[in-house]
Design a protein that fits this description.
alpha+beta, 2 helices, 2 strands, 20% strand
């Protein structure tokens, strides 16, 4: 009887541990956007206009199983 209760408690604890592994991540993606002419302008100019990167903040959400109405 004690073994059955111990195995049942272990099964419930492990199921709870797997249920809590939903991960939501925040990411910052950067992308190079300058052309060759813009890079040359930055080298020879006092006023540097082009940073050369585009920054995008991405939030990954967990997927849910919802049914779309038709």
């Amino acid at each position: 009887m004690k073994k059955i209760a111990l195995l049942l408690a272990l099964a419930v604890a492990s199921a709870g541990a797997f249920a809590q592994q939903k991960v939501v991540k925040d990411e910052v993606k950067t992308k190079k956007t300058t052309t060759v002419g813009q890079k040359v302008h930055n080298v020879f100019s006092k006023h540097k206009h082009y940073s050369g990167t585009k920054t995008k903040h991405v939030v990954k959400k967990e997927k849910s199983a919802t049914v779309k109405p038709s």
